[in-house]
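Hi, here's the filled form for the chain we discussed.

Project: internal
Contact: R.S.
Residues: 151
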Amino acid sequence: MLKQIIDNGYYSFEEGFDSWEDAVKASYQPLLKKHIVEKCYINAVIECIKKYGPYIVIIPNVAMPHSTEGALGCHGTAIAFMKVKKAVDFDPQDNDKKAMLFFSLAATDHHEHLRNIQELMETLMNEELLDALMKADTLEDFKKIADKYED
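And the returned structure, exactly as it came back:
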């Protein structure tokens, strides 16, 4: 999965953001540039988070932005990766709702969405890999991690 993200150019490294909304928008920029998602899809993701709360922070420091199945403005299936140096706070009342790693999902159907989530969960279950991603600051760091943990 990480090598696929690198090969497709679906990654970014950022300092930080003034709001979680700005962070979510930025996390989708590689997919927006490649026309996999439109701005209306990114706005739908933000609206879902406003409506349902920070459900996208799946474990401390890891966010998985995504919208509901069948959301308009999604033209392909992909995962984008973004690492921020300064944690993004999704809920000031809950320290576990901060994120530094973003895996932003786009999927055209339910089957693809579940496959994306399953692939991501398998990756995130490796604590050593997660720790390495938390320390990554550059594309070179990211490539070394992908080479070490993926065949």
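Let me know if anything looks off before we file it.
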